[in-house]
Design brief:
Chain lengths: 367, 346
């Protein structure tokens, strides 16, 4: 049941483990941070928690603490050795102890269960972040193709969203329509938040039952998942005709996003991209609104995790590399009109970028 | 991530119910000589914090600290722009957003003189957060608070029963929307998800056994394709952080349809036993000349897990809470034909 990306990932992981002198790599995950587990096993975990033990020869054991998930993994995962263990930590420790005196790395290290590190003295588990972090950020060609397919579905999903948005509808009904579309297209996961209203709206969150009314701005980011890979689109629409203030505000975000995208190229730092976006806001006297008081990030990496490194912020000095998949989105609060979003996914290239989203960059209007 | 309706309604989850739950927890924590209790939450392990506070993060992580007295503190790595939203859906406790929630809680415990802290599921607690506690709370002793929490969690109130019943109705609505003539997994799963979410489900994991003749294993929409003559759909669904499962088997074979319908009725009429074992009750209820129970699994919330296996046909029942609602998942053989079902019981 393996996706086309999995064999290539395993080869890259084996090479990285060899380069970092790692005999066994312990990968932990759950429905929030599913990326490390997915990289090695191709299994998209939904419930409970899981640990994968990846040996240098590629032999992998997946341990899951939910019986239904273990059964699903036996139907869906790309590996044969799958165990159900109500006590994940106990089972993983027993297996690791059997590995003997070998170099064991683990990731994501800070999320690893405490019991795995706080156990027997002869079991030494080291931070294995270096083995896998770069692999998660910089994509192989087959991985980029999955992100491209996800971006295409993000575009199609936004068209559904626009059609669904009309006065009198509740915000969660819009989400229901999007999810129906994605399930019908074979998309199992989608990261999505929404904002509805005007100047009082400070950010996006899950839907709370707000009813759309004329004049509302409706913001969303859609992030469908294809073969485990996420791509995102951020757009804003107005219920009815946009007023002058909304149009003027949108023009700032458009200029900022285009400045950020224009800055993207291999070797450019995340900080430089963020600065290109933020300088536009400063030019219009909106510098206060690019701080953490009003915004989280000015974009971020995407892949097997929808919000991975590098975060696009002015203090992040990570250089962009060819093959990274990122979104540039100058999403923030605007004092005149409220929270506004605009963002496109792209692939970093040697001399610039490959744009993945095709939805027009405009402030949409729906009746 | 959670992307369906997330809202707090005092009619459904009264503040008083949460205060009672906190009082029960405090009593249990004090009984083991601890100064406070910490539960970790994320979208996979959010059941304990949701039970105590009503709050389930849609993404990211957080720590909920319940001191022996005073206001609980919730620290989350969700960003500041959603702090107001968290406050609107979390009726109890103080909310702080920070990139380092464990450090914030650790500093708060240190300032208030906490020394012996009960941690829910200490073995599973994120190692980075445990290290932060040990480094920033002078003289701290971390102890496993799982049993203390379980003692408090044995209390099932009307609010919980109401939310579970509503979740169960949404799951039923989703399954009722499926056309037995669907030919692909996608055609079966999309309406199931749609109807559940239109009804206000916070989350819906719809999965399918594409061909009951060859397997009883569920798959997601991305890995399952064509459906066989008999298939089953499972809806694992949350309404305001209360999780249920429902499974329904479908057949396109007219001669099998009455048997499937009879099995549906049998599952619908199963009642929790007032006494005796669950295994005996199941064996006594699911009977018939051409019917055999192949396996079953009972699930209830346990610690941070919204649904956890508490009794199975292959194991013991010691974790099963007789007085609390549970999900019964069951596989029957109907004259050699596999049939799967699940629903909330109690």
């Amino acid at each position: 049941m393996a996706t086309t990306t999995h064999p290539a990932r395993l080869k890259a992981l084996a090479a990285s483990m060899a380069a970092e002198n790692t005999d066994v790599l312990v990968l932990f995950g759950n429905n929030w941070h599913a990326d490390h587990l997915r990289y090695a096993t191709d299994f998209g975990i939904q419930e409970g928690q899981g640990i994968a033990l990846v040996r240098a020869d590629g032999a992998t054991t997946l341990i899951l603490d939910d019986p239904a998930e273990a059964e699903r993994a036996r139907a869906e995962a790309a590996i044969g050795d799958i165990l159900y263990a109500p006590s994940l930590v106990k089972e993983a420790r027993q297996l690791l102890t059997r590995e003997g005196n070998r170099q064991i790395g683990a990731a994501p290290f800070h999320l690893l269960p405490y019991g795995l590190l706080n156990g027997e003295k002869d079991l030494r588990v080291n931070d294995g972040t270096k083995v896998i972090e770069r692999l998660l950020m910089t994509k192989l060609e087959v991985e980029m193709d999955a992100v491209r397919r996800a971006a295409k579905l993000a575009d199609e999903g936004y068209a559904i969203f626009r059609d669904a948005a009309r006065p009198g509808r509740k915000d969660y009904e819009l989400v229901a329509e999007i999810e129906t579309f994605f399930r019908a297209k074979g998309v199992p996961e989608n990261f999505m938040i929404i904002g509805v209203g005007g100047q009082e709206v400070r950010g996006m969150a899950p839907p709370g039952g707000k009813v759309l009314k004329p004049g509302d701005m409706v913001t969303t980011e859609l992030t469908p998942c294809v073969d485990g890979y996420y791509a995102q689109i951020c757009r804003t629409l107005v219920v009815g005709e946009a007023n002058e203030a909304q149009k003027q505000a949108f023009a700032v975000y458009l200029e900022a996003m285009e400045a950020g995208i224009a800055a993207v190229a291999s070797g450019v730092t995340a900080a430089q991209v963020a600065k290109a976006e933020n300088d536009v806001f400063r030019k219009f006297g909106l510098g206060d609104y690019v701080t953490s008081e009003y915004t989280r990030v000015r974009g971020h990496g995407m892949g097997l995790f929808p919000d991975q490194k590098p975060q696009i912020l002015e203090d992040v000095q990570i250089p962009l590399e060819t093959g990274m998949t990122i979104i540039v989105h100058p999403n923030t609060y605007h004092p005149a009109v409220g929270y506004l979003v605009l963002g496109d996914s792209l692939i970093v290239r040697d001399q610039g970028h490959e744009l993945l989203c095709g939805t027009p960059r405009q402030l949409f209007s729906v009746q | 991530m959670r992307r369906g309706l997330m809202a707090w309604d005092e009619q459904e989850l009264p503040r008083a119910a949460l205060e009672t739950r906190l009082a029960l927890l405090r009593e249990a924590v004090q009984a083991i000589g601890c100064d406070g209790f910490v539960a970790y939450t994320n979208i996979a392990k959010g059941a304990a914090v949701a039970w105590l506070s009503g709050f389930q993060p849609y993404w990211n992580e957080g720590l909920f600290y319940v001191p022996a007295t005073g206001t609980p503190l919730f620290a989350t790595a969700l960003s500041k722009r959603v702090a107001e939203w968290i406050g609107s859906v979390m009726p109890i406790g103080q909310v702080q957003t920070t990139p380092k929630p464990a450090l914030l809680i650790a500093q708060h415990i240190a300032q208030t003189g906490g020394k012996r802290i009960a941690i829910l599921e200490l073995d599973d607690f994120p190692a980075g957060h445990a290290k932060t506690f040990l480094e920033n709370i002078p003289g701290v002793e971390l102890v496993d608070g799982t049993a203390a929490f379980a003692k408090a969690r044995a209390h099932v109130d009307a609010a919980e029963r109401g939310l579970l019943a509503h979740a169960d109705r949404l799951a039923e609505m989703g399954l009722a929307a499926i056309d037995a003539k669907a030919s692909t997994a996608q055609q079966a799963l999309a309406p199931c998800d749609e109807h559940a979410r239109l009804g206000g489900a916070e989350e819906c994991f719809a999965t399918v056994v594409p061909d009951l003749q060859t397997s009883g294993r569920f798959q997601r929409t991305d890995t399952a394709g064509a459906l066989g003559q008999n298939f089953a759909v499972r809806s694992s669904l949350a309404y305001k952080a209360s999780w249920v499962r429902r499974t329904r088997s479908f057949t396109r074979d007219a001669s099998l349809a009455p048997r499937f319908a009879a099995a549906d009725k049998l599952l619908a009429s199963f009642q929790p036993p007032a006494e005796g074992s669950l295994a005996q009750a199941i064996a006594g209820h699911f009977t018939g000349s051409d019917l055999r129970v192949e396996s079953w699994l009972a699930e209830q919330p346990a610690g941070s897990s919204p649904l956890s296996g508490v009794a199975t046909s292959a194991g013991s029942e010691e974790n099963w809470q007789r007085q609390a609602p549970f999900v019964l998942n069951i596989e029957l053989s109907l004259n050699g034909t596999r049939w799967l079902g699940a629903r909330l019981v109690g």
